[in-house]
Amino acid sequence: MASESTSAIQRSQVDLLDYIDWSGIECLNQSTNQTVSNALKQGYREDDALNLGSDADEQLLIYIPFLQVVKLFSIVIKGPEEEGPKTIKLFSNKEHMGFSNVNDYPPSDTAVLSPDDLKGKPVVLKYVKFQNVRSLTVFIEDNQSGSEITKVQKIALFGTTVETTDMKALKKIEDH
To answer: 127 Cβ partners below 8 Å, 6+ apart?
Structure first.
């Protein structure tokens, strides 16, 4: 029964790729030849050979602004079994975070990813914390094996735009 309700939620969600403000994306501690585009951009993120890789240590801090306000339901993070992300902290509408102040703020949600999650399983977020999202900061704290390098093959964000949500709610009432 639980899987049925999860899939029902997912059917109303869209990949928020088209709503990302690409000019504003930042990623701290990314490798110079393994950038955040490899994990986020359409086409790149479907190629498991392309990764976002960390540079100096295992941590990554990714800032993703949106072109309009969105409601975020779930996140998909794919990565290799060993170097894939483990502890992910998500911050809604927190601009200009750095490694020096990331622990000064309580995250909107925290997920500890299993190797199974890293195969592309959506992680459902605390929906109430992600109602009016203008930007999302993803802090990857560590990886599965504790190695120096973290690799991310894909990051996909699922939800709805605020306007779309209102229209769909209206349409569902008319259908009944």
So the answer is: 71, 73
